[in-house]
């Protein structure tokens, strides 16, 4: 896991990693939409998802992105999947690697899940082709 040992350190490290992976604009929008009701959840994902898991030293960010894409596609979380396709490209995952991840999803989690994920990824990759190609 990360080197952060207390909540405040995990929060700071998590926010930095969250901005690097998802982009500052996305994180700023999420922060602006935070309400009293959602504040605890935002703090939780910043500290634990981003400040611990995504900050861990055992796996590089490209691999984490591929794992995240596979899990989100397999579980049918389309809006989170779309966000992480963008994050994966930011982390250096090539479209061909995303395709391979989704082929594994088709094989192990089902063709309908992969079909939906392919449609989402294709739309995102098409709209951003000039940015990364």
From TrEMBL:
Tell me where on the tree of life, at the top rank, the source sits.
Answer: Bacteria
Q: Which residues form a coiled coil?
A: none
**NCBIfam families under this entry?**
decarb_PcaC
Q: Which residues form the Carboxymuconolactone decarboxylase-like domain?
A: 41-122
Q: Which PANTHER family match?
A: 4-CARBOXYMUCONOLACTONE DECARBOXYLASE FAMILY PROTEIN (PTHR33570), CARBOXYMUCONOLACTONE DECARBOXYLASE-LIKE DOMAIN-CONTAINING PROTEIN (PTHR33570:SF2)
Official protein name in the record: 4-carboxymuconolactone decarboxylase
Give GO MF terms, alphabetically: peroxiredoxin activity
Note the Pfam families from the entry: CMD (PF02627)
């Amino acid at each position: 896991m990360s080197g952060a040992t207390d909540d405040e350190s995990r929060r700071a490290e998590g926010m930095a990693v969250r901005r690097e992976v998802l982009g500052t604009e996305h994180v700023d929008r999420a922060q602006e939409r935070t309400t009293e009701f959602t504040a605890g959840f935002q703090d939780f994902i910043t500290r634990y998802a981003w400040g611990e898991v995504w900050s861990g030293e055992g796996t590089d960010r490209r691999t984490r992105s591929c794992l995240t894409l596979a899990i989100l596609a397999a579980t049918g979380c389309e809006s989170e999947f779309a966000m992480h396709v963008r994050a994966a490209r930011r982390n250096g995952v090539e479209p061909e690697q995303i395709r391979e991840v989704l082929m594994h999803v088709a094989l192990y989690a089902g063709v309908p899940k992969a079909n939906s994920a392919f449609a989402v990824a294709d739309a995102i990759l098409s709209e951003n082709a000039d940015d990364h190609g």
